[in-house]
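Schema walkthrough. Field components (list of strings):
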Amino acid sequence: MRKSVIKILFTASLLGMVLAACGSGDSGATSDGGGDTIHIGVNMELSGAVASYGQSDTEGIELAVEEINEAGGIDGKQVKVTKVDNKSDAAEATNAAIKLTSQDKVTAIIGAATSGNTVAQAQIANDTETVLLSPSGTSPNVTITDDGTLNEFVFRTSYIDPFQGTVAANFAIDDLGIKNAAILADNASDYAKGLGSAFKETFEAAGGTVVSEEAYVAKDTDFRSTLTRIQSANPEFIFIPGYYEEVGLIIKQAREMGIDVPLMGADGWDSPTLVELAGAEALNNTFITNHYSSEDPDETIQNFVTKFKEKYDGASPNAFHALGYDSVYLLADAIERAGSTESTAIKDALEETKEIKLVSGVVTIDEDHNPIKSATILEYVDGKQVFKTKINP
Amino acid sequence: MEWLQQLFNGISLGSIYALIALGYTMVYGIIKLINFVHGEVFMIGSFTGFYAIAFWGLGFFPSLVLSMTVCAVFGVVIERVAYKRLRNSTRIAALITAIGVSLFIQYVVIYIRGAQPEAYPNVLPNRTLDIFGIQISSQSLLILLVSVVLMIILQFIVHRTKIGKAMRAVSFDPDAAKLMGINVNNTISATFAIGSALAGAAGVIFGVYYTKIDPLMGIIPGLKAFIAAVLGGIGIIPGAVVGGFVLGIVETVVSAFGFSLWRDAAAFIILILILIFRPSGIFGKNSKEKV
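Field assembly_structure (string):
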């Protein structure tokens, strides 16, 4: 307790110093001047609770930087990366952003992997006019603050949460031919609620009927009574936005009760634990939306997969690897078009990004600094994720 | 049909609550201690079963017996180490110790193996049966059967054996029992052993039925079982069984009406109402026997 108080005070005082510096007329310019390197900061969860996300993003970033430097850099300038570990902690993420902007004077920051740790840096990015690009922060409030204003210098490479609900609804109607669906959402998570309402909106707008809407709370273990209720409404399809720990149990219990309609979720399902909990057989006829699939036959993706395997001893890249990798190319493209390493120029160029072909889809940045791109649908077949199709927004 | 299905869901859930509640009620009956470690014994039982099935390849019944044995020993050790020397101190001291031991066990397990959940392997053949138009998995039927058999065995031990008679005597009046030549210490240990063995069995059954186990899994079922025990009348064995089933069915009915988010709240509202209006529980007044 005392430790965290000290941490907060420390952060606050550092923040104060930075703000004071800005106020006193120091421009807080972050560019490297006319050097022959471009300095990019990486502020990631390299340890702590969600270290696997941060490490994956970083591995993707390192691969992309290596490729760019081998190919001669951006506009002939080599890219230099400074990594800082934010320990999966919002206060540490703020500290790391202060260090990167004031001490290392980086051109741009890539990070963090999660929405919360990105939001923790947003203020600093705006104040010091440093572009902040989150590879995998999917919460809407990363780029748009809660009071509705745009974080001018904050961008992201992943699509936002509710988008997956929209995609799932389109897939259910167009590809599966579903007319009535049920929703079972985790009521304790904004992520699940956002997906659920986006699904409902799109599904009903396209002429479908939501026949049953139920909720559960994370850490529940018994879903049989709720499922019985859903079963009696006879849906042809059940949308279950949530995280794998509960979803695994829901799928197992649903199949035991004889509910054999297609089930669908989003990237929260994406964990090997899901297969262990639900069982490979129960998972048949279930689908998820995700950022990308390493099995997608697309040429850009297969190139990336091959290069990744070469660098990391045959490991297969996951969605975080792809998003980290894409973030570097998204940034590199903007710097190239801006023709300078001046922050505002990069920011303007990023805003004008149009149809750039990346691993996780063809990306156009919209006015809210979110990418518009396709989502990938995966199907579980005997416990393995198989590439099904791509859905455009 | 939907209601028949919901009733069955409730009974399955209730049988697990009842098994855990029995241990609570037995220990309370004999030393007037609300043994909050009971939820952790349940968790240890579940993990023992898991390791027996996943790593030693044992079947369901051998794992069940092994887990009950381990938990019986574990329960006795807890009693000897933590509670025995507090037997003549205030009840609040023993209660606080129970909470302390409970937290200690939870976090030692997390320290040893981490906090990540584990998925129970499929040990029982699982077919979905269609009985009177409701879908029942063969697994849940077998589990229900095992719970009921265990409760019948317990009833037999308490009423037809010498140790059962000693337990009832100690629960009635420990000093008088001592004067009659009953070894009070051994009797208390036996109570802990039997109660903990039931919690161990509940742990394995829970694992098979609900798949996901983790080091903090004992907290909520432990609290629910405590409510079940209070509902039936704490200290009274049939009360714990009835309380468990009633609680399971009430929770299911709450969900069945579409208030799934209110399920846990409903359980605790029952606890509050019982404590206000009938603190001695459903069976509290006219029943004389206590264990």
